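Quick one:
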Amino acid sequence: MIDTETASAAARALPTELQSPRAKLVYLYLTTNGDATVSEMGESLGMKKLSLYSILKTLRNEGLVDCDGDCYVPN
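Output:
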């Protein structure tokens, strides 16, 4: 669980180009956890893999995350 101070700092650090609440959630998850597979994100966030792949593609195109094998990592 994230403490309030960490969550507040992460929210201030959100890139302005992120408009979608789900994209913000995935980005915050990755910046908090460091790296994760799509399966791990799906289980933790309660999201379908198909949705996650779409969001992760957008985040990669924006240069905000990268893919290292099966794991996604924040840039």
